[in-house]
Structure formats: structure tokens, C-alpha cells
Design brief:
mainly alpha
């Protein structure tokens, strides 16, 4: 079985998560709690599917070295390092934030969500950027 399609799927899932998170944020700003909840659960499901796909791909293929040099390499790693670091941190944060929201622990949910959302968005968006730089750009 080939897993070569998984990096593109992973980028799509990351982009989907970013869109769902942003849309969910707009809904909570408009006080549409039920709609906000649906979008945030969908973002969590999308991110969970990403994580599963990511683990399957890297268990089969391992890591792919960045082929660029010079400034491109510096830019790539300046994006990758905070992406990976924050990706490890956001998983437990997202779980706790979601649990508090579903349990209607609104005060604690809101306090943590204000930290979780920007980190989660950053991780989702930079995941797409890393994919483009690693798999789609041609380096010389």
C-alpha cells in the first residue's frame, strides 16, 4: 500500500482545521454557541484525522530532509521548529479546552480557549506552509 498521498491529505486536513477554527471563532463572537460548538468539534475531528494520518505516513516513510539551502533552509527551520514545538503543546490544550466547553465550564473554557485558539491556528497554518516548502517547492 502506498502512502505517498498522505502529505497532501495532511495539508488539506490542516487547512480544513484552520478554516473550521476561524469560522467557530466568528460564531462564538456572534454568540451562536451551538454553531460554534459544531465547528470546534469538527476542527478537533479534522485535527485528529491529521494526527492519525501523520503518524501512519511517518511510521512508513520516516522523515523527509529539507532539500533547500541558504536562506530557504533558514526560513524553513524558523517555521518548522515552533510548528513542531507548539504542535506538541496544543494537543493536550485542545483536549482540555474541548472538554471544558462540552461540559459548559464556560469561564475556564473561555480562559484556556484564548490561549489554545491562536496556538492551534498557528500550528494548522504553518503545517500547510511546511508541506508546501517540503513537497511542492523546487529547490536548487
Amino acid at each position: 500500500m502506498t502512502v505517498s498521498f498522505l502529505p497532501a491529505l495532511n495539508a488539506t486536513l490542516n487547512a480544513t482545521s484552520a478554516i473550521l477554527l476561524t469560522t467557530g471563532w466568528f460564531h462564538i463572537r456572534a454568540r451562536r454557541i451551538r454553531t460554534h460548538r459544531r465547528f470546534m468539534i469538527s476542527a478537533f475531528v479534522s485535527s485528529s484525522c491529521f494526527l492519525l494520518s501523520y503518524v501512519i505516513y511517518h511510521a512508513q516513510v520516516g522523515s523527509k530532509p529539507f532539500p533547500g539551502t541558504g536562506l530557504a533552509r533558514t526560513v524553513y527551520f524558523s517555521i518548522l521548529i515552533p510548528h513542531v514545538t507548539l504542535a506538541a503543546a496544543v494537543l493536550p490544550m485542545a483536549i482540555v479546552t474541548l472538554r471544558r466547553g462540552l461540559g459548559r465550564d464556560d469561564t475556564r473554557h473561555r480562559r484556556l480557549a484564548r490561549i489554545t485558539l491562536p496556538i492551534w491556528l498557528f500550528v494548522s497554518v504553518t503545517g500547510v506552509v511546511v508541506y508546501v516548502m517540503l513537497y511542492r517547492m523546487r529547490w536548487q
